[in-house]
Amino acid sequence: MRSVQPDQTAKARIRDAAILRFAQDGLEASVRSIAADAGVSAGLILHHFGSRAGLRQACDDHVQAAIRDSKSVVMAPVGAPAALLAQLAQLEGYAALVGYVLRCLQAGGELTTRLVDGMVADAVEYLDQGVEAGTISPSRDEAARARLLTDFALGSLLLNLPAGREPIDLDELPGWFAAYSERILLPTLELFTEPLLTDSSLLDAYLGSAERTTP
Amino acid sequence: MRSVQPDQTAKARIRDAAILRFAQDGLEASVRSIAADAGVSAGLILHHFGSRAGLRQACDDHVQAAIRDSKSVVMAPVGAPAALLAQLAQLEGYAALVGYVLRCLQAGGELTTRLVDGMVADAVEYLDQGVEAGTISPSRDEAARARLLTDFALGSLLLNLPAGREPIDLDELPGWFAAYSERILLPTLELFTEPLLTDSSLLDAYLGSAERTTP
DNA sequence: CGCTCCACTGAACACCCGTTTAGCGTACTG
DNA sequence: CAGTACGCTAAACGGGTGTTCAGTGGAGCG
């Protein structure tokens, strides 16, 4: 085969360049721009990955594998997942992965569903530990609560993400994450410590009606 | 001028068709597809709006005006804004407006910021009424709490939105909103009624450190 | 009537995209 | 040393895009 090491092949270089471009410019980044970044021709990308969709799939697979290898690092205390992302994005090379995941979440699709489901599963586990430790109160539906908290954390993060469609400066990501997590820390802590509603009449009413419909 | 009434002119017809198309296919819908829907040539759109960006601007302005006219209907009890959207989307013609707003929120940009800020302002007002009525507990930072709750509600709504980039069936929107709001109702009510955290040690720690840094 | 104005069209332009194809050069292989 | 397989490139293809432009036809007006 080639004389060089199995990694840092042109194929891997293209994939890494693609993840970086997709993270910076969005998932609509052109094959030609990726080719220029990788220092190859556009044709070579199609030669290796078959099509643009094949390249996207390869990126998805690689990112998913990277997440699996450094498991459970992405989920965290629900109030401050952004703080962890800030640290993660500072690690060499990981900023591109974080940016790519954000773009995927933004765009939706199959990978998004899998990623979110994975985070929900992690949240279930984390919340369960809290309940057993006595720091988190139990829920009537642990799965639904984990899903809700994950959606809240991820959704508001995406909604506040600076770049709608325009390029993201990956160097600024960690600082942005830190500022965002600090900004939401007080209201989040307050919301999770002191009940928003002063009495349980609304919850009781719902539980009463639900009981009547599904006895 | 023209013989027909000032409304239902070709220009207005193009704008309405554009809002509908943008809502269904996303904000990247082509000028030609909109022209076909409106029954005019692509050139006429450019003639009336100057450019594709001009058409987008006209749509933004029209949607924003429509929201201003039917004010405060979009914001609601934080746990169930989707239920109101479901009702709103059933109204004749309003489904396209709701879909267009969702696309804008998805894509980010200037209109998004203005829309979210408006909803936050409404949330401040609504929460204030609850505090005065005694149903909602006061906050240390009312503005930050309103922002957080709005981000949570909107963000998780967008994250759960079925269409990543593919066309939305506007007829299915009301049903989807209703199902979504019902799905999150129990965990939301629970979260807002019974504290997630069993004690206030985390909040106290934050308040203590904040007090020390900004005495 | 002739004139002008204007909504409006259809074809063309220039550009970007993903993809195809023909071919080049080199490093293995028999 | 020929043969061949393969990484790789450059150019072109076909289709979609926003936009331009010359021109048409009808309504209002002096």
From TrEMBL, chains A, B:
The keyword DNA-binding applies. It holds the Pfam family TetR_C_25. Residues 8-67 form the HTH tetR-type domain. Keywords: DNA-binding. It comes from the Bacteria. Residues 30-49 bind DNA. SUPFAM superfamilies: Homeodomain-like (SSF46689). Transmembrane segments: none annotated. PANTHER family: HTH-TYPE TRANSCRIPTIONAL DUAL REGULATOR CECR, HTH-TYPE TRANSCRIPTIONAL REGULATOR RUTR. This is TetR family transcriptional regulator.
